[in-house]
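hey m, so remember when u said the tokens were messed up on ur end? i reran from scratch. heres the input so u can diff it against urs
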Amino acid sequence: MTIGTKDNFRIYEEQYYGGLYEAVAQNINVFNAASAGAIVLSARDVPGDFSRESFIRDLELVTRRDPAATSAVADAPIVQDEFISVKLSRRLGPVAQTLDAWKKINQDPQIMSYMLGQMAGQRKVRDYVNTAVLGCVTAIGGVAAMNPAVSPDSSAPATLTHAGLITAMSAFGDQSASVAAFVTHSKAYFDLLKDTVAEKIVEVAGAVIYSGNVSTFNRPTIVTDSPALVADNEGTPNYRVLALTGGAVRVEENSDSETVAFELITGLENLVYRYQGEYAYNLGLKGFAWNTTAGANPTDTAIGKAANWKKVASSDKALAGSMIVVS
């Protein structure tokens, strides 16, 4: 079997990256400024399987002093901990197609490179979002204080309303202003839309009808039908709604993560053009550390286990967010 060299197909790679960057640009609107900084996408060199960031745990520096006492007091130690993100490795393809197949539909084989670039860009961003949401749902779900009930007196949660969003923010108490964005399934979002109209909120119902805005207390809402936002309730789906703080999720692409190979395969009945790629990125959650004993390059099942996300922030108010469940 003879394989063509990289130089033989440089033009195809240019087509591929053109499609990739265009697709990523179109789908990137859940990150960075669009989410008010709640979900951050960046690129940097991340060697190894984990990224560690040390910090000093909060100290109780202020205590009552007795002016009449001369007794000894114990020193308070300075304790260091660390946030840990985990690297996730991904494969693209392989995909193979005969060159003759493209000729039969009167298309230049270059279109394969562009098409694969578009598909890879869309699916990479979808992977980033779904994995980030899964991590958030799991980690936040493991902290009881950050899971306030919408309907505490009912066995079944209510549909999403503006009161529900307030409940989600209330988990942060006096730090509720740190909530930067909401993440919700489309079903819950449209329930919120109906509530906006039904409640006839001043200057909101008209805006919903004419400009498509939903009142979410001046915070952007990311609407995504991510599987992790759907919870099974004895055969009936419920929906998780996240209230995320600034910097809640960090998706860090390795700066050289995208490796793509194109090859022309000979020795077969027809000439075949094959594509394969790979990349890696780190997932980190604010206030949590990945449990390294759970292993590197975890599966979705591992990411979806609360025990694999250790709360290292001293205060619950310093975590990635809160979560409510609605019907």
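this time it looks ok to me. Residues 27 and 213 are 20 Å apart (CA to CA). if urs says something different then somethings off w ur setup not the seq
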